[in-house]
């Protein structure tokens, strides 16, 4: 099931909150900054440990990795790195990979409920209409593939503009829901 809400992802009572991180994993602006601020220093401590281990060069675009959610109401944060929008190159497959890989990491944790922000649509400048189409299609396809334990995906859109665009795209895809 897919749900759309307008709001702040740091307030969501879900198993997993997905973070639109950058490859350094060491925090940034936008939703990343909000997650680290509200979640507290434990998240950054785990991110630093990831950088000291398997992710010495950082997290590649399209990949996903989990940490604690610290003080957030969620149990885990799954960090993924969205592609920066490009006028000259089609990077859609990387944006799709973010959503697919985040859901697989969430499923490996045993998560049933997952909240996503509109990955890449802030500092990385991806147009909302296109991001909504890729996000909704990829999540729908991943959930219906069967091997995924996740039962609910909630897109948490920051502001009415983002909400309206996702709503319109979901309606066009016949997703219905709330
Ligand atoms: P990116 O670098 O992937 O573009 P940003 O954090 O700049 O990531 O933006 C991604 C989306 O997250 C944007 O649509 C932005 O408005 C939104 N956003 C920012 N803060 C929050 C928040 N607290 N909850 C949900 N969405 C947020």
Domain count: the total is: 1
Strand order of the largest sheet: 1-6-5-2-4-3
Could you spell the SSE succession in H and E letters?
A: EEHHEEHEHEH
How many beta strands in the DSSP annotation? 6
Structural class of the helix and strand makeup? alpha/beta
- CATH topology title: Leucine Aminopeptidase, subunit E, domain 1
Q: What ligand species are in this complex? A: adenosine-5'-diphosphate
Helix content: 25-40%
Largest sheet: 6 strands, mixed
Low-confidence stretches: none
Helix segment tally: 5
Q: What global shape is seen?
A: globular
Radius of gyration: 15 Å
Estimate the mean pLDDT confidence. Answer: 96
Strand content: 15-25%
- Supply the CATH superfamily name: Leucine Aminopeptidase, subunit E, domain 1
- Label the CATH architecture: 3-Layer(aba) Sandwich
From the N-terminal CA to the C-terminal CA, the straight-line distance is 10 Å
CATH class type: Alpha Beta
InterPro entries: Macro_dom, Macro_dom-like
Pfam family, one: Macro
Organism: Amycolatopsis keratiniphila
Domain Macro: 1-174
């Amino acid at each position: 099931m897919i749900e759309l809400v307008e709001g702040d992802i740091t307030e969501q009572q879900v198993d997993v909150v997905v973070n639109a991180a950058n490859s350094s994993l060491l925090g940034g602006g936008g939703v990343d900054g909000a997650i680290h601020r509200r979640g507290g220093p434990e998240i950054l401590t785990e991110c630093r440990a990831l950088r000291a281990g398997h992710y010495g060069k950082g997290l590649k675009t399209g990949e996903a990795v989990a940490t604690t959610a610290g003080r957030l109401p969620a149990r885990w944060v799954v960090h993924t790195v969205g592609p920066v929008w490009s006028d000259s190159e089609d990077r859609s497959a990387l944006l799709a990979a973010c959503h697919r890989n985040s859901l697989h990491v969430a499923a490996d944790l045993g998560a049933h409920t997952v909240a996503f922000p509109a990955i890449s649509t802030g500092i990385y400048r991806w147009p909302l209409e296109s991001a909504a189409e890729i996000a909704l299609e990829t999540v729908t396809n991943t959930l219906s593939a069967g091997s995924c334990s996740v039962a609910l995906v909630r897109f948490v859109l920051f502001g009415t503009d983002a909400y309206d665009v996702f709503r319109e795209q979901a309606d066009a895809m016949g997703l219905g829901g709330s």
